[in-house]
Automatic annotation (TrEMBL), chains A, B:
SUPFAM superfamilies: YjeF N-terminal domain-like. Belongs to the NnrE/AIBP family. GO terms for cellular component: mitochondrion. It comes from Apis cerana cerana. (6S)-NADPHX binds at residues 62-66, 133-139, 162. K(+) binds at residues 63, 129, 165. This is NAD(P)H-hydrate epimerase. Keywords: Isomerase, Metal-binding, NAD, NADP, Nucleotide-binding, Potassium.
């Protein structure tokens, strides 16, 4: 049985990947975001070349970075992502990831939730929630409350990257929290994923060294052949 | 018909990807090496969990970096790569890529071709040629002559990454040059690929922005669904 990680374990594994195994953030973010795009394309093939676009909501940290990479790979796969990115961090990595999206003709939406909500939200066939990741601690900051409320109340399917945003990383959803239809757990699932009641739970991020897997007793299931994602449920 | 690039075009595209599109080398090398590993795993599935290991010969530049990334993904896919890396460049990126391989329990072989040749070469089911890429200009430097001779004379199948090493990037093989069974062209094929007479020619590196494709009239064939490689012949 695969291990579900608590917040401290998640942070320690992340630290090990960068400090001990000397991966760069660029490398692992590329693989993480790519696996999310593959999982989405496999699950929602009807959105390819469709009038229904995909809204990618990106947060200020690495989860948002995964979202930007995911958007770019979705575009390569023939989908039409659009990016909502309300709070940007001054960081050359994120700036470049955003630049790559723009140069791949992915629209960057106006920084205004009212606008998003009024902008015929039904034109989107899927919303990707890349707002907060495994280092999130409540409460949600003021600036993100409107988009979280929008995600809580929409009937459009949501795919959350690693953590459904606003959920406690270990305990799961708050009262009325968002209900993603799909979740892509990166590296290994976090404890809150036990409370996931959507249809599709994937594992992505096929880059965990065996040695690290053993150190943390992750007991990861085996990916099939060269697949970069694995359906867990 | 897909365009075959001359050396100047190859270099200009590379420059654009990094300077104009602001990709990092880490990102694109990760995707390039990953696509090579996927192509190899699809072509030689019998080498998985087999006594026949894969010898990865890495050169001093980015082609060698692609080889290191390819080795790591092959290991993730259940293959047994070993690395021969005769001349290393002082560069934190390559040092980290090598470190990641070692931490993934991929053996780094002694820096000595005689040793490689004597080391029961038949234990390898495939040799990956990641020595020189599209910026190669003859002649082959002395230090690489022994490994090039070994590749020219072996009966073990060879998979070349982007350019069969020792070949002229535009004109193709020198007299007696290596004859790879497989070639993975990255981004777009180079002119020398027209002289490729092996069995499997793949395209990899699915990250080319449409805008760049148009600028250079690459006329890339369409990848299928979420596939990261495409068989060209």
């Amino acid at each position: 049985m695969v291990k579900y990680l608590n917040q401290t374990e998640s942070m320690n594994i992340d630290k090990d990947l960068f400090e001990k195994y000397k991966f760069s953030v660029d490398q692992l973010m590329e693989l993480a975001g790519q696996s999310c795009a593959i999982a989405i394309a496999r699950t929602y093939p009807s959105l390819k070349n469709s009038v229904h676009k995909i809204l990618i909501c990106c947060g200020p940290g690495n989860n948002g970075g995964d979202g930007l990479v995911c958007a770019r790979h979705l575009k390569q796969f023939g989908y039409f992502p659009e990016i909502y990115y309300p709070k940007r961090t001054n960081n050359i990595l994120y700036e470049n990831l955003l630049h790559q999206c723009i140069e791949n003709d992915i629209p960057l939406l106006k920084n205004d939730v009212e606008y998003i909500a009024s902008k015929q939200l039904h034109q989107y066939g899927l919303i990707v929630d890349a707002l907060f990741g495994f280092s999130f601690k409540p409460p949600v900051k003021d600036i993100f409350i409107p988009i979280i409320r929008l995600l809580e109340n929409t009937i459009i399917p949501i795919c959350s990257i690693d953590i459904p945003s606003g959920w406690n990383v270990e305990d799961g959803p708050p009262e009325g929290g968002i209900k993603p239809e799909m979740l892509v757990s990166l590296t290994a699932p976090k404890l809150c994923a036990k409370k996931f009641q959507g249809k599709y739970h994937y594992l992505g991020g096929r880059f965990v060294p065996k040695k690290l897997e053993k150190t943390y007793n992750l007991n990861l299931p085996e990916y099939v052949e060269t697949d970069l994602i694995l359906l867990l449920n």
